[in-house]
Specification:
By secondary structure, the protein is an all-alpha fold. It contains 22 helices and no strands. It has helices at residues 2-7, 18-27, 29-48, 61-89, 91-97, 99-110, 115-143, 146-173, 179-183, 185-197, 202-207, 211-221, 230-247, 265-283, 286-291, 293-299, 306-327, 333-358, 369-386, 389-396, 402-430, 433-454. The longest helix is centred in the first third of the chain and has 29 residues, at 61-89.
C-alpha cells in the first residue's frame, strides 16, 4: 500500500519529487526564522510598554506603529532589491544574501539603546521578508512539477506561521537578552545548508545559456540518476529539451522584454486580479493582526491572558496553512480563495459585534468568544488569502514578464504591509476595535465577489506557458 502511495505523481515522497521537497524544506528555514522575528514582536511590545520593560526605555503608541510598520518599508526595499537581482545573479545567491539582514536584526535587538534600534532592526527583517516573498515563489515554480507546485509554494507561509508561533512562545517565556542567541541558530544553519544542497534552477541556467549546468540542475531536482532505466532518462532528456526550446525562443527571452509586453490582454487581466488578491491579503488585516495580536486581545474584552491567546492563534495559523498545502493542488486555488475571503469577512464582522457589545453589557462569562472568533478568522484566512497569494500571483502573469510583474505585485503588497502596520494601532486607538474590524470585513467581502466572478483556476498550469 505504501509503495503505491509513494508512486503517485502528487506524492511529495515520490522518487521524482524528493529533491524538490528537500529544497523546499531547506529554503524555508529562513521563513521560520523570519516568522520568529514577526511573532516575537507581539508579546515583546507589551513588555516594552509596561513599567517592567527589560530595556532602559519604553515606547508609546506612535513609536509602536513605527516599530511595527518598519517591517513593511523593509519589505518594499527587499522586493525591489531582489526583483532587480534575481535574473542577474541567480536565485541561489539571492537565497544566501537574504539571511544577512535578518541576522542583523537580532544584533540590534540585543544592543538596543533606544527605540530607533528596534525600528532599524525591523526594517532589516523586512528586507529579508521582502526577499523571501520574491525569491521563494519564483524559485519553487521553476524547480517543481505542476502537480505539486501549489503544495510546495504554500509551504512558504506554513513555515512563516510556524516561526510566528515559535516567536509568540519565546517572546512570552524567554528573557529578552536570551532570544537573539536562540534565533540566530536558524539563519546560520540555513546559510550553511543552502551552500551545500541548493543549486540554481534549470530555467535560470538556461536563460544564462549554461545548458550543461542547466541539465544537471534539472536532473538533480527531478531526482534522475545515471542508474535509472534508459526509458526514464530518455523521457527526462526530452522534457528538458522541450523546456530549453521554449526558453531559448527569441520572442520569449526575458532580455527581449518590450514595453508592449506589459500591456497585453493577458498581462492586464493578471494585474487586475493580482491587485484584488493583494488588497484582500492586506486589508483583511490578517497579517497586521498577527503583529498586534496581544494588543487586540487586551482590547477585546476577553479575560484570557493576551499572550496565551496569541499562542493559541499561532497554532491555528499553522493548521490553516497546513490545510492549504493539502488542498491547494486538489481543490484548486479559486475555491480556497472564495471560502477564505467569505469566512474572514463573516468572522471579522462577528468579532467586531462581540467587542462592541462588550462595552455595553457584561460578557465576562463569554471571554472565550474573542479567541474562538479570531481563531476562525485566522484559520480561514490561512487556507487561502495568506497561503495561496504567492502561488497565484506567480501563475497569473505571462512567462515573458513573470519575474518582473511578480516583483511589482509584491512591491505593492509590501507597501500595503507598511500602510496597514502603521495605521492599524492608530485605527484601534481612534476608531475603536469594532469599527476597525468591520472596515476590514467590508473590504474582504468585496474581494470575495471579485474572486467569484473573475478569478480563473490556475491549478496544473505549466510555467513555460502563458
Amino acid at each position: 500500500m505504501f509503495a503505491q502511495l509513494f508512486q503517485r505523481a502528487n506524492c511529495l515522497l515520490n522518487q521524482r519529487n524528493r529533491h524538490q521537497l528537500l529544497a523546499t524544506v531547506l529554503i524555508n528555514l529562513i521563513c521560520i526564522s523570519h516568522g520568529m522575528g514577526i511573532g516575537w514582536l507581539s508579546p515583546t511590545l507589551r513588555k516594552l510598554q509596561s513599567t517592567d520593560s527589560p530595556l532602559q526605555f519604553s515606547v508609546d503608541v506612535n513609536e509602536v506603529s513605527w516599530v511595527g510598520s518598519a517591517l513593511g518599508l523593509g519589505s518594499v526595499t527587499g522586493n525591489i532589491i531582489c526583483g532587480l537581482l534575481i535574473n542577474r545573479i541567480g536565485s541561489r545567491l539571492c537565497l544566501l544574501l537574504i539571511a544577512v539582514p535578518h541576522s542583523c536584526l537580532w544584533f540590534l535587538v540585543y544592543f538596543a539603546q533606544s527605540v530607533k534600534f528596534l525600528i532599524v532592526g525591523r526594517f532589516l527583517a523586512g528586507i529579508t521578508g521582502g526577499g523571501i516573498y520574491i525569491i521563494h515563489p519564483i524559485f519553487l515554480s521553476e524547480i517543481s512539477d505542476a502537480n505539486i507546485r501549489g503544495t510546495l509554494a504554500s509551504m512558504v507561509m506554513l513555515s512563516v506561521n510556524f516561526g510566528i508561533l515559535l516567536g509568540y512562545i519565546i517572546g512570552t517565556h524567554l528573557a529578552y537578552y536570551t532570544i537573539p542567541f536562540v534565533v540566530l541558530l536558524c539563519p546560520l544553519s540555513y546559510f550553511a545548508l543552502i551552500l551545500l544542497f541548493i543549486r540554481d534552477s534549470p530555467m535560470q541556467l538556461i536563460r544564462e545559456q549554461r545548458f550543461a549546468a542547466a541539465e544537471k540542475s534539472f536532473r538533480y531536482y527531478k531526482n534522475i540518476k545515471d542508474s535509472d532505466s534508459l526509458d526514464k532518462q530518455a523521457l527526462a532528456t526530452l522534457e528538458f529539451e522541450n523546456i530549453k526550446m521554449k526558453l531559448t525562443n527569441e520572442d520569449d527571452m526575458p532580455d527581449n522584454v518590450r514595453l508592449r509586453d506589459f500591456f497585453t490582454p493577458v498581462a492586464i487581466k493578471g494585474y487586475a486580479m493580482a491587485g484584488v488578491i493583494v488588497i484582500a491579503n492586506q486589508f483583511s488585516g490578517l497579517f497586521t493582526m498577527v503583529n498586534y495580536m496581544s494588543d487586540i486581545f487586551a482590547k477585546s474584552g476577553s479575560s484570557m491572558d493576551p499572550n496565551t491567546s496569541s499562542i493559541i492563534i499561532g497554532v491555528v495559523q499553522i493548521l490553516g496553512a497546513y490545510v492549504s498545502t493539502l488542498l491547494c493542488d486538489v481543490c484548486g486555488r479559486k475555491i480556497l480563495m472564495q471560502v477564505s475571503s467569505a469566512g474572514v469577512a463573516m468572522s471579522l464582522t462577528a468579532f467586531g459585534l462581540f467587542t462592541h457589545f462588550t462595552s455595553i453589557y457584561d460578557l465576562s462569562g463569554w471571554s472565550w468568544v474573542p479567541v474562538a472568533l479570531m481563531s476562525l478568522d485566522i484559520f480561514l484566512g490561512n487556507i487561502g488569502l495568506i497561503s495561496c497569494i504567492f502561488v497565484l500571483i506567480v501563475e497569473l502573469f505571462p512567462m515573458k514578464i513573470r519575474a518582473r510583474a511578480t516583483s511589482m505585485a509584491i512591491v505593492v503588497c509590501s507597501s500595503l504591509v507598511f500602510l496597514m502596520l502603521n495605521i492599524f494601532p492608530l485605527c484601534m486607538e481612534h476608531w475603536g476595535l469594532p469599527a476597525t474590524m468591520w472596515s476590514c470585513a467590508c473590504i474582504t467581502a468585496v474581494c470575495f465577489v471579485c474572486f467569484s466572478l473573475f478569478l480563473k483556476e490556475t491549478k496544473g498550469k505549466s510555467m513555460v506557458e502563458d
